[in-house]
């Protein structure tokens, strides 16, 4: 399963860069795991060039039996826990006049706990859109509404791929609300906006990467099975954007190395300042995935999905993704939890002041899976 979490991390970074490139100055939040799990169900039915392109973009090429790994990963992540709620929901909606192969339908059910629902896109596209939206809203406790906007589902739609993820977890060390104060957040060198800044001092897993003047902080959720990891580059003195250098040069190896809990300092008191924030982001990923190299999947005359249906002409018309996160003193609503042991040592303090743009991700620690990935550039 390690090969899958590494592949998923590589895809997460590639996708992050592609999305960020379209909106470099904005906030960003998405679930790479949810997207790759849903695309992986399509990959199950892809053949030929379409399958090759998908494997390359998703970083699946060197992973034998990727679908079995996903089954293991899904059950590890979806195992019921009292301390947090984490739900991953995937579904495929297919035009009812298309006959999907029973082998494919059985496999998506067995490997992904995903139902294939036949809908009447041709005769009732608007009704089908509302049906899909209702299912997503239900699976995300009402947080994700209208994932498919009006006009995205038409009589030409043959297959819609929908993914949704929901997480709610409490910090292992909650922030005291009385310590939250309004502070300026530096959007860039010339502009600040007020944020509600939470603060606390505790021993947290911490790393400092000299080459990038980068602080790495691991904030665990209750039971430490999930964490929010924050990557905070030092502000630049020459007017350049330190986040852009990090985004450009960040690799999977660096990410795994810097955030490896066994190699992080765990004995230092960290004075943490972290803003409360809420993000809701929506993406249509077809163009982005196309640019990343997954092109034939979206073309009626080129897509080879013959592992799904023996009829020709089946292709993916939309990949809709919407993600929501809220971070406050109690914890996070979106997706997350981690591992910290407190040992006794001579007191040393480190200041972690997140009052300027940073990257963050929420990770499932036992499987090292990145559930959510984001960038916070301040209130928009």
From TrEMBL:
<dbReference type="InterPro" id="IPR000240">
    <property type="entry name" value="Serpin_B9/Maspin"/>
</dbReference>
<keyword id="KW-0007">Acetylation</keyword>
<keyword id="KW-0963">Cytoplasm</keyword>
<feature type="domain" description="Serpin">
    <location>
        <begin position="13"/>
        <end position="379"/>
    </location>
</feature>
<dbReference type="InterPro" id="IPR000215">
    <property type="entry name" value="Serpin_fam"/>
</dbReference>
<comment type="similarity">
    <text>Belongs to the serpin family. Ov-serpin subfamily.</text>
</comment>
<dbReference type="GO" id="GO:0005615">
    <property type="term" value="C:extracellular space"/>
</dbReference>
<dbReference type="InterPro" id="IPR042185">
    <property type="entry name" value="Serpin_sf_2"/>
</dbReference>
<dbReference type="InterPro" id="IPR023795">
    <property type="entry name" value="Serpin_CS"/>
</dbReference>
<dbReference type="GO" id="GO:0004867">
    <property type="term" value="F:serine-type endopeptidase inhibitor activity"/>
</dbReference>
<dbReference type="InterPro" id="IPR023796">
    <property type="entry name" value="Serpin_dom"/>
</dbReference>
<dbReference type="InterPro" id="IPR036186">
    <property type="entry name" value="Serpin_sf"/>
</dbReference>
<keyword id="KW-0722">Serine protease inhibitor</keyword>
<protein>
    <recommendedName>
        <fullName>Leukocyte elastase inhibitor</fullName>
    </recommendedName>
</protein>
<dbReference type="InterPro" id="IPR042178">
    <property type="entry name" value="Serpin_sf_1"/>
</dbReference>
<comment type="function">
    <text>Regulates the activity of the neutrophil proteases.</text>
</comment>
<keyword id="KW-0646">Protease inhibitor</keyword>
<dbReference type="Pfam" id="PF00079">
    <property type="entry name" value="Serpin"/>
</dbReference>
<dbReference type="GO" id="GO:0005737">
    <property type="term" value="C:cytoplasm"/>
</dbReference>
